[in-house]
Structure formats: structure tokens, C-alpha cells
Specification:
By secondary structure, this protein is α+β, with helices and mostly antiparallel strands. It is built from 14 helices and 28 strands.
Length: 610
Amino acid sequence: MNARIEDYALISDLETAAMLGRDGSIDWLCLPRFDSPACFAALLGTADNGFWRISPVGAGPCAQRAYRQDTLVMDSHWECATGAVRVTDFMPPRAELPCIVRVVEGLSGAVAMRSELRPRFNQGRVMPWVRAQEHCTVAVAGPDSLWLSADGPMEIRAGADSTAHETATDPGIRDSTVLDFTVSAGQRLALQLVWAPSHLPEPPEPLRVPAETALKATGDFWRNWTAQCRYQGPWREAVTRSLITLKALTYAPTGGVVAAPTTSLPECVGGERNWDHRFCWLHDSTLTLSALLRSGYRDEATAWLDWLVRAVAGDPAGLQAVYGVEGQRLLPEAEAPWLAGYEGSRPVRFGNAAAHQLQLDVYGEVLDTLYLSLRAGIPMQPRLWSLVESLMSHLRDHWREPDQGLWEVRGAGQQFVHSKVMAWVAADRALRMGEMLGRNGSAGEWRAMRDAVHREVCREGWDDGRRSFVQSYGSSALDASALLIPKVGFLPADDARVRDTVRAMRALDHHGFVRRYAHDGRGTHSVDGVRGSEGTFVACSLWYADALAATGRLRQARETFERVLDVRNDVGLLAEQWDPDSRRQLGNAPQAFSHIALVETAFALQEAGA
């Protein structure tokens, strides 16, 4: 039985991340990068797909857990009949090779502990060869190796299920490696797990770094980083945790921010709405930059901008909605039938076919990001103006085409209102940048396009019967993306059409939270062509709070925001969706889009005086 999504905490080294359960088990880890094949995949299957658990023998979930203040260092506490123990989990920010450190400390009495390591390389399906070396064991399969060491005495043995494997083919193949030890009050024992390319013959360097040194350095790193945060409002704890999470989802070598560290956590438990989010989406680009700049993280904002510019270089006709952490374009989507899926939610997918969709809104996102950076005083390199011109030249000829839109529908393309609004944003921001830079050669054409898009959206995207902007031309369906119309400046918040649209969004309310769009009641969303229902969308609920504040409904805005805060898990993390009926998180987690929106809404409410 899988743990609930909200039972997982995150640790990260700024190049990959692990998902740690309340029972002390790391059930998801891709090495050496966010988008690498998983070596622990029990999250999407069973224990046979790989995990690493450290806990008291026979114990269940920990009694309590918490991140150390302003860090990504996790403490988990167990109270047992014979005593109490704390396990501290962290990943030192990457210097050379990825490393997980787990420090076990006796608090009272004497507690029998067990570490069980069961790696399964290549997306949870390849059992490695394991050999013992002096002071460590190493598991090897294909290009990967994992080196496990401890800084104190313990009994090391093969797992209970490994006998058949050892006698059948090779004594080096083990189901798992089990380490038994006892900690008494005041005793500490640290275990380190390091990934290295399998061709390296020597134990990797991180094994030689004392755990206490690594723990202090990791805590200092996060506290020093968090101290830069400029937000001082009433929700500082939530904002700080969201910013730490956003930093943890950043691939430090390039500055790219992944949407989530996981794949295929379901939007509908038992259904097929399971997607790989271990990549970087342009949909998030403007809000990511804004959240980082407003919070005081200019270096991270600049790194994200640099990643974006490198990723989108080339033919503007080939602009994608999603790229890899290094800006790679090929993200082939494949299914993994050997994984049972989270609570039977199949298929499990690796890669994302959205990379090949036409999503016109991303042109607006890119140009809005460039404009925001210019306004923030980040210098625009001369070559970037040619990027602006090429994107606008392409969009001017193609903005009237149907596309798959913000929600990446797998059905037929449509004339999505949000895509058209973002085409308007593209022209508007190009004009504004031209004025700032004194480059007005194409201003007439861009102004004509901006005006044409605006007229068409106000005519075709508005439904008089619903008194609202709708999802697509000719439709009466509502879409929460219309809440962004005042935020991007398409219409002012005091426009009657904006106020009416915000009121109309109550039809998307589900127990105080907001859906992306309406469900058709037959198990499918007619617009997206995928079977199964889904939860409410966390970011949409936060957009609703923004819109309420912008239209003067401050009390309702604050209540909506605080409802979202209430459904964070016990360590402050949000998934992509929330199901008010089952009261559980859904979708990939933690979700950058949710945490970015939380930061943006906290600033918006503070500025509005809510």
C-alpha cells in the first residue's frame, strides 16, 4: 500500500531530489539528475522497485518530523517502548557527486535500528550486483553505482528475500542490503549513500567527508540562502518554505527549474492522468522570475532567465512549452509497464509528449519574462532583441491558429482564450521593450496585432449569457485561466467584464477550492480527451485569491489564500492538486507551480492590504 502523497517530504542537492516518507523510507530518487532514471521507485510500484529505509525495527511512521528552521534538513522522531531516536536526513549541495546523509541519534533508552537498502536501477527494474569492500558496500548495474558507508560498527547482511538470488546465479546479486545496529541515548551513527559512475574503481570522495561536517555545511548553506528573503509579511513561514522548495527544484548547473521531482503521481487515483513533470515549463517562466525577484533572489532569477534564453534559441517556429533541465528538446514519452503505478494508477510515464504540442501562450510567456527582467534592471544582451523580433514575426503570422493551450490538452486544438490573451501579452511586451530600448522599427505592425487580438478576444472570448470570459471561442465553458486577465494587464481589475468573470468563477468552486475547468460528469473532460476526473488545481485557487484582492474583495481573498495554506502537508509542501472530497493531495509533488503561485499571492495580498 502506497503512502499518501502528503506523507512525503523533499530533500535535494540542487541537481536531484529524494522523496522521504514518514516511515523513514526514501521511495523515489533519480540519479544523478532530476530527469535521470530512478534507482528508488517504490513510490510508483512496490518495495521491489527500490527504496532505502532507516527506522526502528518493527516501527511504523515517525511520531513527528520537521525541517530544521530555514533549511532543507529533515528531522524525524520515533518514540519506542525501549527509547526514543531521531533520524536526520539531508543532501549536501552538490560539489561533485550526489550524496544522501542519514544521521541516527539516540535520544533516550536504547533503540534497535535497521537500514534496508534495495536499489533498482533503470526506473526501478534492474537488480544490481553488490559487493562488500573495506568500510563500505557498493551496488553496480550498467552505468550506475551506489556506495553505502557508515561511521560506526553494525551488522551487515543480505536481505531476507535474497537467498534465492544468491544461490541461483551469482553470490554478488542481492535483493537488499540490511544493516542492524542499536543506538543508546547520546550515541550517533551516520550512513552515507553516494552515486558514482560505475566505471570508477575507487570509493567516491563524499564518503571521506565526516557527516557532522556535511550537516553543518548544509544547514549553513540553507540558512544563509533563506536570510536573503525580502518578504516580511504575515505568511513568512509559508513563503520561506515555498522559496526553499523552489530552490530545491532548481538544477543548479543551468538554472532550470523543474515543475516537480516526480513523475506519474496521479491527478485521479487509479486513473490515467499521470504525467512526467521532471522538466522545465515555459508556462511558469514569468511567475518564476517575478517570485524570485520580489523575494530578493536576483542571482537565481538571472540564472533562470539565462536558462530560458538558451533553451528557446533557434527557429521561433520550434518554440516548445517544455524543455529538459539543460534545455534539451527531445523528451520522448514512454510507458513503464513493469511499474504498478501509485495506488494502481497507470500508465506510469517517463518523458512528456507536451514537448511536441503547439502552445501559443508560451510566446507571451517568453516575451513577458524578458520584459520583466528588463524592468528589474537585468541588462538585455543585444542579441536578445533579434530573438524578440523573430518571435514576434512568427507569432504575427500564426496567432489565429488553434493550439493545445495552457492545459496541454490531448484532444483537438482549439481557439483557447488564454492563448489569445498571451498573444496580446507578447505584442504588448515587445512594444514596451522597444520603447525602453529605443527600438521601434516594427512598432506599427506589433501595435496593429495587439489591437486586433484585443478586439477579437473581447468579441469571441466573451459569453454574454455567463457574463464571463470563457475557455475557447464559441464555448460557454469556464476556465480558471481567465483569472489571469487582470494580472497580465489585458483588462484592468475595475473593468466590469473582469469583475463579472471573477464572480462567474464561483461555478468552478469545489468546497472552497477552484478547478481548472468544469467536469462533464461522465468521467472525461470534453476539452482534454483524457479519461477520469481530477482534483482542484492549487495554482487556480491562488489565482482566484489574487483576482479577489485585485477587485477589492480582500476578506474573501485572504480566506481563499489561507484555505490553501491549510492543505499544505505537515512540512509545508503542496502538490499540483487537492481533492476536497478525500482530503488528500493529488498530482506530482512538490509542485513548483503551486509554490510559485503561493509566493506571488502572498505578495499580492500584502500589497492590497488584505
